[in-house]
Amino acid sequence: MPGRDGGVIDYTRFEDEFSADIEDEESHDESVGEKSHLNEQLSHLNSHRAHRNHRAGRNNRNNHSQVSNIQNPETWKTLVAMAYFFLVTWITAFVMIIVHDRVPDMQTYPPLPDIFLDNVPLIPWAFQMCEVCGVALFLIWCIILIFHKHRFILLRRMFSLFGSVFLLRCITMMITSLSVPGRHLNCKARAYGDWTERLTQAYTIWAGGGMSIQGVRTCGDYMFSGHTVTLTLLNFFITEYTPPKYYYIHTVSWVLNLFGVFFILAAHEHYSIDVFIAFYISTRLFLYYHTLANNRALYQEDRERTRIWFPLFSFFESGICGIVPNHFEQPFKLDFLRKLVYKMMNKKKSD
Description:
It is globular, with a radius of gyration of 36 Å.
């Protein structure tokens, strides 16, 4: 088409330039939209980061308060728990004297049928080996207590749980007297002349820890097995208060526990039901106690009922918040050892 000056207008060139302008505007609009979208995402990310930092700071403050509470050993409560434990063990020793007086006659009441005892031959030395396993577990636990930073909390829980389980054992021993599980056991009812003689015998049992390797011999205290309780609780305390990386200690602890239980049955000193009930009660009480202690929300929601059914827990754990960390330290400071050695050397020089 001719123009005013007689030339020809190139519409194709105008269309190309117009299309290019439109594309530039669209790309500009898209870049502006992308920038605004990125700004919105960046703003959202910053707000989320600020919220996360605030929450982390709050958690750090809570953790700091929990650690400060845990670091308070409350030694006086540990002394109360120890007194409770020794009182219960003394009551247990006295109850063992009473049930020995009531042991059924072996001729009138023969041993009850038992799947394990009827199929496993008697091993005479097995009961002593069971107590050797218990002594080994006790030595491992003592080493852990010496080096654990929160040893007083561990002692308090140990005294509380051991005392509660053995107090329950006193009740089960008094309720029902089972017949002697093996004819190889020389068990006869003994009639003590007076209370003084009974107290003397009870002291002998208490001082010897109820162990045959200490010369203690009792009958009638079958339901449930005190040796199984000791082995199981020591095993659970060792595995609970050592880090997972000490797996070799956990393995040794479980082996000693299981072999100790086997030796009890192989010695025909207890019925299988005695050992089973002892293992079940010990593990359940240990797990219930530590579940409440490690999850304060469970305790807070049911505080009143917990105080009624677990008064010792409410008292001993009132100052503990959260899980007790497995931190270890030197039991004695180097300065203390230097001063002790220096005093000993000066004393030798003066002599």
